[in-house]
Amino acid sequence: MDRLHLANLAHLRRARDLIDREYARPLDVPTMARHALMSPGHFSREFRAAYGESPYSYLMTRRVERAMALLRAGMSVTDACMAVGCTSLGSFSSRFTELVGMTPSAYRAREHRAVLAMPACVAKIHTRPTRDQPVRIGEVVRDALL
């Protein structure tokens, strides 16, 4: 890797860290791009190349991930939606269902004792939503107990 590529990765990491830290704030691509010291178009292309998804998709995945933890703790769907920075309950529910494989209400109603008993770092790995493979809580519980 050349120095320019390494510098770009460092700038992209700054923007990704911003998303991870400030996911509940209203973030748009121009704001993220400013943190990466890039133009919005260049930032979007480079982010997708480095992390495999668009900046907005990454942001929404982080929001859904945080919402899952709030729902497991018993928070209402509407409150979890607002707490993670989403302003539209319908859009939040659609994205949640797409990533997790069930509606937020169905996820909240499921049994989460096994996940709650896991150390947070283990639960985070096993319940992280991804576009390729929705979370299947039954499999997480079974795998955790084996």
Automatic annotation (TrEMBL):
<dbReference type="InterPro" id="IPR050204">
    <property type="entry name" value="AraC_XylS_family_regulators"/>
</dbReference>
<keyword id="KW-0804">Transcription</keyword>
<dbReference type="InterPro" id="IPR009057">
    <property type="entry name" value="Homeodomain-like_sf"/>
</dbReference>
<keyword id="KW-0805">Transcription regulation</keyword>
<feature type="domain" description="HTH araC/xylS-type">
    <location>
        <begin position="13"/>
        <end position="110"/>
    </location>
</feature>
<dbReference type="InterPro" id="IPR018060">
    <property type="entry name" value="HTH_AraC"/>
</dbReference>
<protein>
    <submittedName>
        <fullName>Helix-turn-helix transcriptional regulator</fullName>
    </submittedName>
</protein>
<dbReference type="Pfam" id="PF12833">
    <property type="entry name" value="HTH_18"/>
</dbReference>
<keyword id="KW-0238">DNA-binding</keyword>
